[in-house]
């Protein structure tokens, strides 16, 4: 019976950890440069530049225009006034090509925040390879403090908690 309890506790501890997210809280977020789109217009995105303006919510999603990714992105768009009030920037990242993300930035993001292409090097650096389909990114959200330190990681394919958890982490940064 005792062995069963230890096994159950170990299992619960394992499932409570972020799935697939190798970057722990406290680690330094890898810097990257890529192309992104905001309101359908392409631009160069550099993480270090974004961090000069405050915390960054960097959320990886598997594929633009799929149901879960579109719902998650619309939820982030709806919450943008709260993120802005807290001084945070939101950036969506996926392995999609730039023309796809240009459309996604207007249709799903409603031109409220940028989405950018995650290169294979960025996907590897953030350990967000979707194990079931390695050509896609996992659904993982990071909150990165202005000093580049990761203060929150949430990795779960269900999109529903990502917005609330990242917003709560941004608010904790302000305290």
What distinguishing features does this structure have?
single chain, Glutaredoxin, 7 helices, seven-stranded mixed beta sheet, 175 residues, alpha/beta
Summary of the model, kept short:
The protein is an alpha/beta fold. The chain has seven helices and seven strands, in the order H-E-E-H-E-H-H-E-H-E-H-E-E-H. Strands 2-1-5-4-3-6-7 form a seven-stranded mixed sheet.
Explain what the structure shows.
This protein has 175 residues and is α/β, with parallel strands linked by helices. It has one domain (2-174): Glutaredoxin (3-Layer(aba) Sandwich). Helices cover 38% and strands 21% of the residues. It has seven helices and seven strands, in the order H-E-E-H-E-H-H-E-H-E-H-E-E-H. The chain has helices at 2-16, 47-51, 67-78, 80-85, 98-107, 120-125, 162-174, and strands at residues 33-38, 41-46, 56-60, 89-94, 115-117, 140-144, 150-155. Strands 2-1-5-4-3-6-7 form a seven-stranded mixed sheet. It starts with a helix and ends with a helix.
List the helices and strands and how they pair.
Blueprint: H1 2-16, E1 33-38, E2 41-46, H2 47-51, E3 56-60, H3 67-78, H4 80-85, E4 89-94, H5 98-107, E5 115-117, H6 120-125, E6 140-144, E7 150-155, H7 162-174
Parallel strand pairs: 3-4, 4-5
Antiparallel strand pairs: 1-2, 1-5, 3-6, 6-7
In CATH, the architecture is 3-Layer(aba) Sandwich
Point out poorly predicted stretches.
Answer: 1-19
Would you count the extended β strands for me? 7
Nearest-angstrom radius of gyration?
16 Å
Characterize the biggest β-sheet. 7 strands, mixed
Q: SSE order, as H and E?
A: HEEHEHHEHEHEEH
Could you give the distance between the termini? 44 Å
Q: What's the overall average pLDDT, rounded?
A: 88
The CATH topology, please? Glutaredoxin
Strand content: 15-25%
The protein's oligomeric status is single chain
Number of helices: 7
Structural class: alpha/beta
Strand order of the largest sheet: 2-1-5-4-3-6-7
């Amino acid at each position: 019976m005792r062995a069963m309890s230890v096994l159950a506790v170990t299992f619960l501890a394992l499932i409570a950890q972020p799935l697939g997210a190798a970057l722990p809280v406290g680690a330094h977020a890898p810097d990257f440069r890529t192309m992104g789109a905001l309101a359908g217009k392409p631009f160069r995105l550099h993480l270090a530049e974004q961090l000069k303006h405050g915390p960054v919510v960097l959320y990886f999603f598997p594929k633009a225009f799929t149901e879960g990714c579109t719902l998650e992105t619309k939820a982030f768009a709806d919450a943008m006034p709260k993120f802005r009030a807290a001084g945070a920037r939101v950036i969506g990242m996926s392995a999609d090509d730039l023309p796809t993300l240009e459309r996604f930035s207007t249709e799903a993001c409603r031109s409220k925040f940028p989405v950018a292409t995650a290169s294979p090097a960025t996907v590897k650096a953030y350990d967000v390879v979707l194990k079931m389909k390695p050509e896609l990114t996992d659904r993982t959200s990071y909150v990165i403090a202005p000093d580049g330190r990761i203060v929150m990681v949430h990795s779960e394919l269900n999109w529903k908690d990502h917005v609330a958890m990242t917003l709560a982490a941004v608010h904790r940064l302000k305290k």
